[in-house]
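Researcher: Next sequence.
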Amino acid sequence: MKLTILAIIVILSQVSWINLAKAANPGSIRRLLETNECSGCDLRKANLSNANLIGADLEGANLQGANLSGANLAVSILSDANLSNANLSRATMNDADLRGANLTDAYLGHANLSRAYLTEANLENANLFKANLIESLASGANLSNANLRQSSWFRANLENANLGGSDLFNANMHQANLKNTDFSNANLTQAKLIETNITLANLNGANLEGVNLRGTTIGLSVCLITNYIGCAPQKVIPEVE
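Model: Next structure:
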């Protein structure tokens, strides 16, 4: 029995050591807070909640599982950074550079990503509930299976983006660039696609119940899967006064 207990203690000690080894480097956290620069740093699971990181250089940094809730990351550089499983709820990230960043499974509920650069970023399974992505540049981004409910994409660029299987319930995509956007099997219920162009978008299996297509240029594929009044190939539906 004593040997069994001793073995368990040894195993638990090893697990604890491994978890500590995977945590953020305290020196890296100190460097970031003091200099606002930590490109390529190991900041896994770092607690940076409500931190003032305006304009911080975190290019290529590892922020996997970090707590950045409420942090101010406006105009920061996070290109190619690993933010998978990070908590970015209510974070301020307007004009941030997130090109090529890994945001899989990240929580970005109520975050401000207006005018953010998300080109080729990976946001698969991310939660962007009520997030602000107005005028963001997300061409080629992977948003498959993401929670985008009630998010705002006014005048955003989503050309060639993958939103397959995503939940866009009541999302606002007014005047967004949706050229070649993949909406296959996405939930677009009550989404606002006002004054957009979806002639080349992939809408196979998408739920378009109650979608708002006022002033939108639509194609034959849309007409085949929805009973929208006035639906016709390449027809621009006039605004309703």
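Model: The radius of gyration is 21 Å. The mean pLDDT is 87.
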